[in-house]
Amino acid sequence: MKAIALAVLWGLTFAAAYAAEPGRTPLPAIAIEKPGQCVEPKDVMRRDHMKLLQHQRDKTLHQGIRTKKHSLNECIACHADRKTGTVLGKDGFCQSCHEYAAVKLDCWDCHQPKPGQKTASGAKP
Amino acid sequence: MSENNSRRGFLATSAAALAGLTLAPGIRLVEIATAKPDNEPVTAKVRWGMLIDTTRCQSGCTECVAACGKENGLSEVKKPRTDAQWIRKIDLKELKTGRALSLPMMCQHCANPPCVDVCPTGASFKRADGIVLVDRHICIGCRYCMMACPYKARSFVHEPHTDQNPEVPRGQGCVEGCTLCVHRVDRGGTPACVEACAAAGHNAMLFGDLNDPESAIAKRVREVKTTQVRADLKLDLGVRYEGI
Questions:
Q1: SS3 call for B184
Q2: How close, in Å, is residue A37 to chain B by CA atoms?
Q3: Which domain, by its residues, includes B28?
Q4: What Å distances lie between residue A15 and A2, A19, A57, A90, CA to CA?
Q5: Which chain B residue has its CA at the smallest distance from A70's CA?
Q6: CATH code, B211
Q7: What residues make up the domain containing A73?
Q8: Do B48 and B2 share a structural domain?
Q9: Per-residue pLDDT tens over the stretch B88-138
Q10: Which residue from B minimizes the CA distance to A73?
Q11: pLDDT tens-digit profile of A31-42?
Q12: B13-20 contacts: CB < 8 A, separation 24 or more?
C-alpha cells in the first residue's frame, strides 16, 4: 500500500516538473495588436470575458442598449490580427487561446470576425 | 426615487418644449432629440411603424429589396428557393377591373405576433418599442414561427455564411426576418428600404413612431384611410398600407 502511494506521489512530482519545464508545453499565441488598457483588468477579462459578452448581448438584442464597452464588435476592433484582419486563424486572438483551452467557439457561426462597417450606409474597412 | 422621477419628468417636459423649436426651415430639434442614448433601454412609449403608399410604389422597382440585401448581408442569391428573404415585392391585380398595384411585403411587426406565441424557446420576441426579432442565441431552428406567420415574413438560413455585416449577425440554422434595421433605428436612423425608396424618388415608404402624435406617420394615418393586411386576425400591425 505504502509502495503504491509512493509511486503515485513520485508520478505526480514528475508530471508537475514535466509541465513546468519551459518550452515543452505548448502555449497559446496571444499577441496584443494594440497594447493599451482593455475595458477591464486582464485577470477579469481572462476569467469572465464570456460573462461580460453574454450580458451585453442580451441587453443589446432585447433592450437596444448599444454601449461600446463590452460589445463584441469593439473586442474585434482592437484584437483583430493586423495581417489577417481577423480574430480567427492559427494565431488569431480568439481562436488560438480557445484551441489551447479546447473550448468550442460558436460566436463566429453568425458574427463577423473582421472589424469594420460593411453596410449600405457606412464605408468598407 | 420620487426625486429621480420628478427630475426625469422635468427633463421630458423641457425636451418636449425644445422639440417644438425650429433651428432652420425644415430642421427641427425633435429629429435630433429622437435618437435614444446608447445606454438607455427601449421603452413602450415608442411604437415603430411603417406606412407604405401603394399608389407611389412602382411595379418592377426593387430598390427596397436590394437595399435590404445590401444592408443586412443577404445580397447574393444563389438558391432562390431557399435563400433568406426579408422583404419581397408583390404585384396584385383585381381581375374584374384590371386595377394593378405593387407593394413590398415584409414582417408586419405585429403587436400580438403569432410567431412569438408559438416559439417553444422564447427566441422569437417583441421588443418594448414594437420591433419583432429573433434571438439567434436561443433559436433552435424549428421553424414553427415560419408556419405561424400569416405574411410568410420569415426565412430559415440553410447555408453557412461568412460575409455578414458586423452589425447584423446571421448564420446557418436559425430563422430570421425583417428587423426594421434595428441597428440603425437604435441610433436614430431609418430602415435601409425606406432610405432607398426615398433615394429612388418614389417616397412610397414612411417610417416613424406611431405613438408620437407629432410624427409624420402618425399624422398621415390620422388623415387618410390605411389598411392592415389581414386585419381580421386582429394582430395590430406596425406596417400599414395605403391604397389597397
A1: helix
A2: 22
A3: 1-33
A4: 20, 6, 41, 28
A5: B39
A6: 3.30.70.20
A7: 23-109
A8: no
A9: 999 999 999 999 999 999 999 999 999 999 999 999 999 999 999 999 999
A10: B166
A11: 787 778 899 998
A12: B19/B214
